[in-house]
Amino acid sequence: MNKPNDLFCHVDADDVDCNDSPNEHFNTILNARLSRRSLLRGSFASAATAVLGATGLSACGSDNGPVEPVAPVTPVTPAPPPEKLLSFSAVSKSLADVVVVPAGYTASVLYALGDPLSAATPAFKNDGTDNDFEQRAGDHHDGMEFFGLSATGTVAAGSSDRGLLAINHEATTDQQLSSFFLHANGGTTTLPRPAAEVDKEVALHGVAVVEVKKTGSAWQYVKESSFNRRLTALSDIELSGPARGNALMVTKFSPTGVRTRGTLNNCGTGKTPWGTFLTGEENWSGYFARGAADDAARGNDKSVASLKRYGRSQGAASRHGWETGGSDDKYARWNNSKLGTSANGSDDYRNEMNGMGYIVEIDPYDKARAARKRTGLGRFAHESAAFSVPAAGQPLAVYMGDDSRNEYIYKWVSSAAWSAADATPADRMATGDKYLDNGKLYVAKLNADGSGQWIELSLANAAIAALATYKFADQADIVVNARLAADAVGATKMDRPEWCSVNPKNGEIYYTLTNNSNRNVNPSGSSQLTPDSANPRAYTDMKGTSAQNGNPNGHIVRFKEGAGASTATAFTWDVYLFGAEATADSGKVNLSNLTAEQDFSSPDGLAFSPYTGICWIQTDDGAYTDVTNCMMLAAMPGQVGDGGKVTLSYPQASGATLAVDTFIGKKAAPDTLKRFLVGPVGSEITGIAETPDGKTMFVNIQHPGENTSQANLGDPSKYTSQWPSNAGYGAGKRPRSATIVITKNDGGRIGS
């Protein structure tokens, strides 16, 4: 759970703002990550902005059948639009319980928690009595991608009026074990938990594929679509790559180590060049319990070091108490203790946690194909997965971050070279096997002179082979314990690497670094680090009368690959933007010279539009929420090296001066960075997808009203948010995560 004294931690146990990592000293990982989102019907923004309107949903019929492996439309990036980009009027900061977008734009609710995904599923009552969540929208909408459909229901990557949204449902809004908004009376807050409550909460997690369709100028989700489906924390999923069949993956459910159940805490996403969906498993370790005497039960073997490094010290309690739901195997799997007598773990779930923490590939068009966990891409707190720009004859790179404090940035390089024919394959999952099961995993080291290295994680690296605290057996052991391997090679510890995206214009890679309260000029304790070149700020930011220390506002770093492009082992880097309040010290905090129309805190979601080239930046903030709700900004970045070097000087308690050189991109200007959207109270803005013509944007509003007290469940007037019901959507007043759809009133491209 969140540390109560961490001023940028949210109440939500899944809030990434609180993500600590037991890096080096095996402290228990904080299982946090979702954020603040909400829309109150209250005050309106200035005349330069528009608020989310009330839009009812009605189901429309679908004429699709099973998708045939016909040749899909090849994705083509349109020529740059003639409209001037970022010509909209910047949205002002807002504390209202509404979604605010610029004048000339309309935002409507499309798909919300509990919405039925089949004609047989009843309408959502939103009073805590609803069930059947395996056939409903899950909770905490997060990353998502759009996949086009033709008018006849076949694959059509270029379609802009009909398609599938693959959407992550990360977690639930929790207090005291229970996901209280989902249960009639708030749920049980003591152990054991009732099976019915556990079953509902498990089903709320995972992924949804839902058809969406444009009729006239209005978008709706298609309730009766045969494409609609849910993957939950109990769905059967295949393991692929180096760890498939390895001894580390053996469980009672899969004695051969080739399968696992469920995908969990799904956060960021990716879209493969061959048309499948990637989802990242983030804060999964906190869902597992571990007995107080489990170290000894395991004979203090090396699995103990692994468990501690991934946040499960013996005696660790689980986030929801799902392991107490009953004697059935589906509850037992949440107890990560060694309880059986077998030598290999085939009679218990001591290895169950090794099956979580991966990039999972899903074919959104074909529900008959099993999802696959691509173990070669490493096991950690995954956010998004961004591909290098495909080039025929060159391997593909996949860029990733580990979203915990003091964790690392990674990339995967495929063994196979890209073939243009694979953009439209007959078998999409087999194409995933080709590029995502065989390759090399690297971790980043960022140097003080603006250079960097990608260090391969393999037994060929002497530091990994010689590690005394954990003896790696093989490559499967390395990918399953990627954090330990990255520790061994001295990778750079970052301020919570979250989403990443590749600039389609020049191939440069952008990473959001959300925040880190563990940066300190005078560090105390093993978890605190001094500022370094890539994470250069340590300062005090006031939220009311409370001091927030470290790097509370976060920043965005970017890489330029060296010779070899996707296969490069060297790169250069700089800091594209520093989050800050506009009024903060421009010499030490507001280093990007942000104004009131641009200032932001805690960047999280990040995606480049392939249609306009706009870089969309979304926030998951707790540091600046006394001034504004979370937001989304539009940016037109330059390139690595377009700024210069700056030296920050910090006086230390010893009397010495700590000098930190860093490299800052060209400072923001009114025509290169603007606030585009502000969300409702308590919400995080996360997840973004566009139609191929760039004229429709889908954005997720996650956990509005998360700071509501469970004690106030019976009094809607005390909810911190009543969105989206206050925008005219759906029954009841309990707040709901939801996907919104944004269009421009003149029919133009978003952001122009």
TrEMBL record:
InterPro entries, per the entry: PhoX, TAT_signal
Residue ranges, compositional bias (Polar residues): 515-533
Pfam family of the protein (one): PhoX
Superkingdom of the organism of origin: Bacteria
Name the UniProt record assigns to this protein: PhoX family phosphatase
Record region (Disordered): 515-537
Source organism of this protein record: Massilia soli
